[in-house]
Design goal:
By secondary structure, the chain is an alpha+beta fold. The protein contains 13 helices and 13 strands. The strands form two sheets. Strands 1, 2, 5, 6, 7, 8, 9, 10, 11, 12 and 13 form an eleven-stranded mixed β-sheet that branches. A two-stranded antiparallel ribbon has the order 3-4. The longest helix has 18 residues.
Length: 397
């Protein structure tokens, strides 16, 4: 995935509707929180393509917090270790005709916990510690892992032995740490499966929703996107219904894992995401659209930031989403956690989003993403089906 990263830590707690706390930046945008749910600490995926892992683990931690009031720090590297072996098994069975990458999706994490369980962060080696780093660093790891599995999957041998799995697992354990078979936590002994069972999650409760017109609405389909290698289906619903479902979930106290596109010009590294209308920005800054698109991203960010809350936006529609997806303009390249709603001084609506790049940007690891940005760039929402309205549930049956 198109990723970057930095460092960790901050527990954000719930606030009620129309809270008075505000946040401002050099762009002169002032945000007022409408509603905000609890999240666990902001972490840092650092030099690893594991946003899907960090985001979904963080999402499930907030689900546990919402349901039980308990705060957990679950191990992303346990999930990565198990998931890469599952991916390798499929890649070999397909003789290399498939995907083997660092990326994944929210479905991967739930599948891993169902099948293998999970452990707390303290039961695994700290991310990066196996290579002398303080955070997850996959640079050397995947440069070794990828050619290994490609060599197995594309072997010209008539048959292969199962020994490749032992070698592959050895690489996983050497770089990620070995997954424990048992461990102690808060005075009790667990296996990964018994620990997962103790968390209070019903792993059958989670559903993926999307919105595209090349498949029928209210039916499931597998999104044609890289990193969706498990081929788990998402339910397809109209975009306005998807956005209403997102709003209803947040306001009811449920967070949502968001998979979408952050490679757009409007997604800044300072903590903002706005669905900029390039033509109108050009008019306001004296820069025509053609020249604008050739400017370095840092220059674009600086110009738009100066416009602040007055930045012109492109209105997202079902048609713009489809056109961008079909033309490769919109892709699936990042996963984060949406945990709140805010408005700026002009009344523009934003979602409050937990990233996994550490305490980066003007909001210490949180992003404010406009309604139109989310609407135009969402590939899927992953959420608790209990947060979905009954009339929508009936349509999906």
């Amino acid at each position: 995935m198109k990723l970057i990263a930095i460092v960790s830590l901050a527990l954000l707690t719930s606030t009620t509707a129309v809270a008075q706390n505000t946040a401002s930046t050099k762009s002169n945008i002032v945000f007022t929180t409408v509603h905000q749910n609890a999240i666990t600490s902001i972490k840092n995926q650092y030099r690893s393509g594991t946003c899907w892992d960090y985001a979904t683990i963080g999402y499930l931690e907030s689900e546990i917090l919402h349901k039980t009031g308990k705060t957990y720090d679950l191990s992303e590297m346990f999930v990565a270790n198990k998931d890469y072996m599952d991916c390798a098994d499929q890649y070999v069975r397909l003789h290399g005709h498939g995907d083997f990458t660092e990326g994944g999706s929210s479905d991967d994490v739930v599948d891993i916990i169902k099948r293998y369980g999970i452990c707390p962060e303290t039961a695994m080696a700290a991310p990066g510690s196996m290579v002398g780093d303080s955070l997850a660093n996959f640079n050397e790891f995947f440069s070794i892992l990828t050619p290994y599995i490609e060599g197995v999957a594309t072997s010209k041998a008539k048959t292969i032995t199962p020994q490749w799995r032992a070698g592959f697992q050895g690489i996983l354990d050497a770089y990620l740490g070995k997954c424990p078979e048992s461990f102690a936590y808060e005075g009790k002994n667990y296996t990964p499966k018994s620990f997962a069972a103790s968390l209070g999650l019903n792993l059958k409760d989670y559903i993926s929703l999307t919105s595209f017109t090349h498949h029928p609405f209210y039916e499931p389909f597998v999104i044609e996107a890289l990193y969706k290698w498990r081929h788990k289906p998402s339910y397809n619903i109209p975009i306005d219904e998807l956005m209403k479902t997102l709003d209803d979930a947040i306001m009811a106290g449920y967070n949502v894992a968001w998979g979408g596109d952050v490679s757009e010009m409007g997604f800044t590294r300072s903590g903002l995401a706005i669905n900029y209308d390039v033509n109108k920005v050009g008019d306001l800054t004296g820069t025509d659209a053609a020249r604008w698109l050739k400017l370095p991203s840092a220059t674009q960010d600086s110009i738009v930031k100066s416009l602040g809350a007055d930045s012109p936006e492109r209105t997202a529609t079902q048609e713009t989403r489809q056109q961008r997806f079909d033309s490769w303009d919109a892709s699936y390249d990042h996963v984060m956690v949406i945990y709140g709603i805010a408005k700026d001084q002009n009344g523009r609506k934003y979602y409050i989003v937990k990233n996994s790049w550490g305490k980066r940007g003007d909001y210490q690891g949180t992003w404010y993403m406009s309604y139109n940005y989310i609407k135009d760039n969402t590939i899927y929402l992953f959420l608790n089906k209990n947060a979905i309205a009954n009339d929508l549930k009936k349509k999906l049956e």
